[in-house]
Amino acid sequence: MKMKSKKRPAWQEEPHPVTSAAKAITIVIVLALVSVPFLVVVSTSLADPADVVANGGWVIWPEHPSLAAYSEILSGGIVGRASLVSLGITVIGTALSLSATVLLAYALSRPGVYGGKPIMLLVLFTFLFPPGIIPAYLVVKETGLLNSYAALIAPVLVNTFNLVVMRGFFQSLPIELYEAARIDGASEWKMLWRITIPLSRAVLAVVGLFYAVSYWNSWFNALLYLDQPAKWPLQLVLRTYVLAGGQLADPSAGEAGLLSAPQTVQMAVVVLATVPIVLVYPFLQRFFVKGVLSGAIKT
Predict the structure, then answer these.
(1) How far apart are CA 215 and CA 86, in angstroms?
(2) Within a 13 Å sphere around the CA of 44, how many CA atoms are in the beta-carbon half?
(3) Nearest to 164 by CA among 112, 242, 104
(4) What is the pTM of this model?
(5) CB 172 within 8 A of CB 237
(6) CA distances for 297 relative to 108, 165, 166, 167, angstroms
(7) pLDDT tens for residues 133-182?
(8) 277: Cα separation from own chain's centroid
(9) What does the DSSP 8-state code read for residue 245?
(10) CB 269 within 8 A of CB 297
(11) Helix 78-109 / helix 201-217 crossing angle, nearest 10 deg
């Protein structure tokens, strides 16, 4: 059976061979720029420390692969504990932020809601004029959140960009669905759970990933609000260790908190901090265009 070739629209010209070749070359170059450094990082983390020293600090392909660096950082020391802290903050923070964003976006998307426009203007004002570091620190201090994990979640609970995207997506849903549900006696909560959320899986996946990446990669708030190194998330431990360029000591763990073999362990920590997002992204990639563009059509 002969398959029909997909015809181009009348307004779209046939690609020129030079243009196609230039696009292919560009894609190959970008792919190399992205994949080669990541390959070097992974190879260095798997290499024997002697091979790393012999190759000047970087290894493209490990001659004697070893998991010693991963075994060392996951053996219950400071990196292992920091990984659990980052995982907990990411999971709990993403769940709370997504819930708060959905509730606020749904309320602001409903026509005729009391105080909707002033609240939306206030939200947009915070987007245009974000608070500085010192005011944010004073607010966290006065609310008693210093040196607690709540300080890493509460100040960034709702992101204005994510709220605007989700509100726009909710407004793009057919109003007839809500009218029919209201005629049947459905409350606002039931319309949210039975109509809005099931139809918004794309934007929920995108916004959820945005929040998860933000929480997982965050280190500056931890540097400001957490005084105890034992509570540090993985990204702050990685930053401190890379900048130190040597051993990172955990005062509460004694000798068990020392990380040796700097280069291999540094790269192992980098891989450990990067792999979770790399593994999750392919499963949510198909939602990106639909979720973000649909939410940006109507604001």
Answers:
(1) 8
(2) 25
(3) 104
(4) 0.77
(5) no
(6) 16, 9, 11, 10
(7) 888 899 999 998 899 999 999 999 999 999 998 998 888 888 888 888 88
(8) 7
(9) T
(10) no
(11) 140
Quote the CA–CA distance of 267 and 44 in Å, as a whole number.
6
Paired tokens of 3: 């398959």
Q: Cα–Cα–Cα angle for 241, 247, 248, nearest 5°?
A: 55
CA 183/CA 180 separation, integer angstroms: 5
Which tokens belong to 30? Answer: 């970008």
- Find out whether 161 and 292 touch, Cβ atoms under 8 Å: no
List Cα–Cα distances, 28 to 23, 24, 38, 269, in angstroms: 9, 6, 15, 28
CATH numbers and ranges of domains, the chain: 17-66 (no CATH), 72-297 (1.10.3720.10)
Please write the tens of the pLDDT for every residue from 211-264. Answer: 998 999 888 999 999 988 888 898 888 887 777 654 555 544 444 444 444 677
Instruction: Say if CB 164 and CB 125 are below 8 A apart.
Output: no
Say what the alpha-carbon torsion angle 189, 195, 197, 200 is, to the nearest 10 degrees: -150
What type of residue sits at position 172? Answer: S
Q: Which residues of 38-67 are buried (b: 16+ CB within 10 A; e: fewer)?
A: eeebbbbbbbbbebbeebeeebeebeeeee
